Amino acid sequence: MTGAGEVIEVRDSRRTRVVLVVLLVAALSLIALDYSDGSNSGLRAMRSASGAVFGGIEHAAGSVARFFSGGNSSASQVTSLQEQVVKLRAELSGAQLSKSDLKQLRKLLLLAGAAQYRVVAASVIAVGTGYQQTVTIDVGSSNGVTPDETVLNGDGLVGEVTSVTATTATVLLADSPAEVVGAAVQPSGQLGSVTGPGQAAGSGGLMRLQMLSSSAQLKPGDELVTSASEHDRPFVPGVPIGVITTLVNENGALTEAAEVRPFVDYTALGIVAVVIGPPRHNPRFSALPPLPHPAPTVTVTVTAKPGPGRPGSSPAPRPGG
Amino acid sequence: MRKAWLAPVGILVSLVVQLTVLNGLRLPGGGVPDLVLILVAALAVTEGPLWGMIIGFTAGLCLDLAPPGSLLIGQYALVFCLAGWAAGQLSRSAGKSPLRCVVLTGIVVAAAEVASAGIGLVLDPADVTTTAVRVVLPASIGYDLVLCPFVLYLVVVTGTVLTQGLAAGAAAVGLPGLASRSQGTKEHRPLQPRLSRAAARTGDVWLGGASHYHRARPPSARTRTRLRPANGVAGSASGLARQAGRHPGAASPSLRLAGSRRGDGAIGNSVGSGSVGGGTRWQPGRHPGMLAGAGRQFHPRAGQPGGSATRQHGAGTMSSPAARSSTPIRFSAHRGDGTVGRTLGSAAPRLAGLGLAGRRAAATPKLRPGTGRSALATRSLPRVVPKVQFHTARPAAVRRQAAAPRFRRGNSSLRQSGTVSGGVLSRSSLAAARGRAAPPRLRLAAGRRASGPPGMGMLGGSGRSPMRGPRLRLGKQPRFGYGRRSLLSFLTGRRFGGSWLARKRAGRRSGVWLIGKRTGGAG
User: Fold this and answer.
1) Does B195 touch chain A if contact means CB atoms closer than 8 Å?
2) Per the CB < 8 Å rule, is A31 touching B67?
3) Does A20 contact B49 at a Cβ distance shorter than 8 Å?
4) Is B504 exposed, middle or buried (0-12, 13-18, 19+ CB in 10 A)?
5) CB atoms within 10 A of CB B46
6) Is B24 on the interface with A (CB under 8 A)?
7) Do B136 and A46 touch (CB under 8 A)?
């Protein structure tokens, strides 16, 4: 592209202008199409096709990256973990697990086991650009994942599945400002809604809890779990969200508000899980991280009973299921 | 054309890296660099606005469609398209300075970040909040600006490698060892100096048409011929031979004509022959075709009609040309002149007078009259010394030649009057010369007019003009690489090298351009 290309470029500024206008019109019309009709079949087909292509590439790249980032993997630990997986009725994918993955997975299984979720483990293979609070995970409809399912990791709530291809799924993170999560405050069980700060979360932005009832009493240190949604979509009940750090007293506000530090570090997501089977009973606060840290042995933590030291069994109205 | 793969492959790789690695990084400040955007801007800088915006649109569309994308389709396509166009336009105005280029690219990238944030605020108010923008935007712009020069450097070097071979790329990044090691493979040809010893190969005939040719002596280490990248390419001499039409049976002489500098006329200086009668203007001590064999100085008299070279041969160490003896005369290049003919087969010189009227060869290479010291006169013009210079028909060269005739010693008043002392150019001839596509270069040898008859209006002389161009640095070894090329030189464009934009201008001929500049040629 040196010789003739340059000559053409020098000569054809008019053609440059024409092409510029054409491309701009194309981009704007794409935006307009997508904006006006979100369910446009052509655009959706485009997106799913590109999702298949780029998802495959990201799948490969993600596995390569995990292979290199992981460090030494312990085969015996992996096999023992597979037994845990069977024991916890969770379906796990992924043969090569690094140590950090192992840790995350163990926490995840603890959480899922405590709350009796049926989960599909996945790993994050791509992260959205710019201000999009989305990630791509490496399970898809072939693994039984459908849209509007809850995604969690060992620390708590990650987000919800928004779209699914055969092998990948896109997750809208819970710290997105577009995401509104119903939450229950730990001791009282009172309900509120949590919205995320967007990408500012990476630099210390906090989620915001707005209570629904004006009589709700909050104090710093209270922990939040998801309250149940209708048919457990998009959020299954009992997933830990975060802990209240400060109360926000706004003049004239009818209900109380607070800032919530999420349990999950949304900028360092590794192993996550999609809840494909909701619990039979509302786990309530059983999945919250226990205050006195128990020894992380399987025999202790695998029990599905609510923790003995947890005072969260007050008879609050059980929403949903 | 392998460079055509650079943009798609680079965009794809950067897209995957962006989505899988960079976006997941937890950097202080909250933002991450937008590698795809930077790459689009860098590619636009090297490819121009047209390809820049096409690349930008495609990359943006891919970014919109790739799986985690949740924004409206077309947002990034719009922004990146504009960014590619702007980067291409601004890099054009950046001129020669790579530093300015980097700065302008950084401005474009920053503006594109702001634009994408603004579009997000307008179109996706649910996803993009002002607090997030306030936190993330400065950080990501900062990371972009940090990454920008490196990506630009990488793109330029990769493009150089893909178009001009590994040697050029290695030279561009300052790895002379790699550059010299990898020279000689096929794709490095355009930058390699064309050796001018081809006349001595078996089966070659000498241009002059002697039935024999003289084998060159092997060059001694002390008086190495300095070669310069050929301006003329292979076959240019044969074109001349055909044009002369004197040797129907002869094979094409595989003369590689050097002489990238104007006024060098790098071949003809060594030719004095019977059929293509030549009168060479020898400049004592200056001439590229100077005899440099066994310590004898070859001092042909300048400006003497009648083929002073041959006369000198007869008077000097060589046998008479009339005797058609085959004394080999080795013409070594001198002072950075790349010369061609190392052997001189000289026979029956034609009396060569002064004249402007030359013949433009119909075939490439163009036979341009009036420049240089070399002379080849055809028999049809017995009293004319056309100054011969071989050029390939390249647009850059043509553009460069379009100026008025240059005078070796003169100023603007001379040019205005159209006359010079010596009376070579009249006003009419100047007008005629201007009207021609390739005007004759008049070089009045100022310092050497004493050696020739006054009033001869001697043509030729040194190939450089004192009016422009750096002076010939005597004793300076011509350099055949691009020299030290570091990131610093890339950024500053100063004497460290940094002539990649010049390379862009001159295309593949930039090696010639650079060396001509370095060694003090008039180019």
Assistant:
1) no
2) no
3) yes
4) buried
5) 25
6) yes
7) no
Task: Write the single-letter amino acid at B336.
Answer: G
Q: Measure the CA–CA gap between A181 and A174, rounded to whole angstroms.
A: 7
Q: Where would I find the beta strands (DSSP E) of A118-266?
A: 118-127, 134-137, 150-152, 157-164, 169-173, 180-185, 191-195, 207-211, 223-226, 240-248, 257-262
B89/B178 Cα distance (integer angstroms): 34
Question: A134: which residues sit within 8 A by CB, 6+ positions away?
Answer: A127, A128, A162, A170, A171, A172, A173, A176, B68, B69, B70
Task: Tell whether B116 lies on the interface with A, counting CB pairs under 8 A.
Answer: yes
Query: What is the rounded CA–CA span in Å between residue B362 and residue B23?
Result: 62
What backbone phi and psi angles, to 5 degrees, belong to B273? -145, 170
Distance in angstroms (rounded) separating the CA atoms of residues A277 and B338 = 82
Residue A246: strand pairing partners: A259
* Angle CA A151–A69–A132, to nearest 5: 40
ipTM value for the complex = 0.72
Quote the CA–CA distance of B454 and B458 in Å, as a whole number: 8
DSSP state at residue A91: B
DSSP B374: -
How far apart are the C-alpha atoms of A139 and A166, rounded to whole Å? Answer: 8
φ/ψ bin of A275: left (φ > 0), alpha (ψ from -120 to 50), beta (otherwise): beta
Q: Per residue in B341-390, pLDDT tens?
A: 343 433 333 433 333 333 433 334 444 444 434 444 344 444 445 444 44
With cut-offs at 50, 70 and 90, classify the pLDDT of residue A38.
low
Interface residue A129 vs chain B (CB under 8 A): yes
Compare all CA atoms of chain A with the CA of B58 and give the residue at the minimum distance.
Answer: A23
In chain B, residues with a C-beta closer than 8 Å to the C-beta of A3 are 507-508
- Angle of helix B98-123 versus helix B75-93 axis, rounded to 10: 160
CB contact under 8 A, B74 and A30: yes
- Gap between the Cα atoms of B247 and B242, Å rounded: 8
Contact A51 B66 (CB under 8 A): yes
Q: What is the pLDDT of residues B150-202, one digit of tens each?
A: 999 999 888 888 887 776 655 655 443 333 333 333 333 444 444 444 444 44
In single-letter form, the type of residue at position B108 comes to V
Shortest Cα–Cα distance, A181 to chain B (Å): 14
Residue of A nearest to B28 (CA): A203
Closest chain A residue to B139 measured between Cα atoms? A203
* Alpha-carbon dihedral angle through residues B449, B450, B451, B452, given to the nearest 10 degrees: 60
Q: Rounded to an integer, what distance in angstroms lies between the CA atom of residue B315 and that of residue A280?
A: 116
A27 and B78 within 8 Å at the Cβ level: the answer is yes
Residue ranges for chain B with pLDDT beneath 70:
1-2, 95-96, 167-523
The residue of chain B nearest to residue A3, with distances taken between CA atoms, is: B507
Work out the minimum CA distance from A232 to partner chain B, whole angstroms: 23
Residue B288 contacts A, CB cutoff 8 Å? no
CA distance A135 to chain B (A): 5
B-contacting residues in A 135-164 (Cβ below 8 Å): 135-136, 162
Q: Taking the CB of residue B318, how many other CB atoms lie within 10 A of it?
A: 22
Burial class (CB in 10 A: 0-12, 13-18, 19+), B327: middle
In this model, does residue A307 exceed pLDDT 70?
A: no
Query: Is the minimum CB–CB distance between A234 and chain B shorter than 8 Å?
Result: no
Residues of B in contact with A138 (CB under 8 A): none
Indicate the angle between helix axes B6-20 and B49-65, nearest 10 degrees: 30
Question: Residue A4's closest chain B neighbor by CA?
Answer: B507
Nearest CA in chain A to B140: A130
User: CA nearest B504: which of B91, B22, B35?
Assistant: B91
Taking CB atoms and an 8 Å limit, are A58 and B20 in contact across chains? yes
